Structures are given as structure tokens and as C-alpha cells.
């Protein structure tokens, strides 16, 4: 297997691909990894196992039930299976994003969902195109993923204004450690990606953004690292309300770097 795949994850992926080929050999085109593993940023205690499994065609109800059973069996065999996040996408739909896709099967925290929409956007396809890992099937290059960087940038700006800007108006969320970490880590990666036209692991993005943003943001960024990696250490902020307000201010700052076209 690719050297970026942690030794701890390899038995799970081997089991997964073996089950797929044993039970659905005529349907599966290939299994591919994106996300933290592909970006060489996998963290043993935190990271998800992000995958796209490509199909030759749509699935029958019987085949969907088979997939559900496969994922249940994986969870029974290996606790890491609960960190699998992925989608089952038809080969003809490579490069398409959720608004242009019919509902498809997906896996959320290891749990199989027979139909819906999940993490299929231009960022997904770009990471797969540039750094994806073929666990089983033809090479990444053979997929001819059409996504361009412009598509990625527009997706990230959309995310900033249509997800984070509204979220930032609710201070209550940011009284919680998890929301502070999620906001800062995600927005640092968006910032770094849009400035440098590159997608890197979130931790690295926070650490590099610390070197680039004005010093007024350093305390918040260091606090997000503390939450994720030293949760038992005391907060760098005097109280949660001050920290929540600073997180809201950071969201507004990042949004302001790339003004919405409607503003």
C-alpha cells in the first residue's frame, strides 16, 4: 500500500476491499482515498478515513443492502471503521458536485446511508486529483478528473459566506471547545488555500497561518491547537465568552478578506 497510509489503517482497508470484491465484483471500479491520509496529515487519534468508491453503474436495492452489511461487519471487526467517511459514486459522475448528482449511498462516521448527499464538492475532487491514493483499481490519472483550481477557490469562498458567515452570528456555539477548534482549523485552511493555491493538512495550515496573520489572532490560533492536542491544559483565554467573541471576530475577519459578490 501507499506509504502515506498508516500501518494502523491498512488492515481495515484490506478487509474493506476484499469484502467489496468478494461480494460486489461486477460493480466496483475502484477505491480511492482523499482527505488527511492523502495529504500526509493523518492523526491516529483524530483523523477520519476519507474515501471515494467508484462504481461501474448504479446499485440495486440488494446491492445496497450488501454494502450496508459490509460496513456493519467492518465496524464489528475494527474500531477504526467508525472513522470511515465516504461516498459511492458512479464512474460517469466523476467531477460532478452535489447539486448535479442524484442521491447516492454514503458512509458517515462508519455508518452506511443508502441514499443522500455527502462530501462531494470541488475540494474533494481536487485533493483526489492532485494527491489521491488508489487503494484498488486504476490509477488516479486514469480517472481524468476535470476539476480546476478556480472551481476549488469558488467553492471555498462560497463556504465562507454561506456557511461560516451565518454560523458566526451565533455566539452560543463558540462557547464550546469543539466549535472553536472546528472554526479556526477550517478557516485557517481556507485562508492558506486561497492565498497559496494549495490544500494542506489542517494542523499545518494553522501553524503556517500563525506566521502570516497579524499578531492579534495568534492567541486564538494557539488556543485552537491547545483544544485539539492538549485538551487537559488550561485555556489561554480568561473565560469562554471572551473566546467565543474572538472566534466570531475571526470569522468576520476571514469573510472580509474575500467579500461576497452580493455585498
The main sheet orders its strands as 5-4-3-2-1-6
Name of the CATH class of the largest domain: Alpha Beta
pLDDT < 50 runs, ≥5 residues? none
User: Mean of the pLDDT scores?
Assistant: 96
Rg result: 19 Å
- CATH-assigned fold name of the largest domain: Beta Polymerase, domain 2
The rough form would be described as globular
How far is the N terminus from the C terminus? Answer: 48 Å
Quantity of strands, as a count: 6
The percentage of residues in β strands lies in 5-15%
Mind telling me which CATH architecture of the largest domain this is? 2-Layer Sandwich
* Helical coverage, percent range: 40-55%
Summed up, the domain count is: 2
Q: In sequence order, what are the helices and strands, one letter per element?
A: HEHEHEEEHEHHHHH
Total helical elements = 9
Q: Which structural category do the helix and sheet elements fall into?
A: alpha+beta
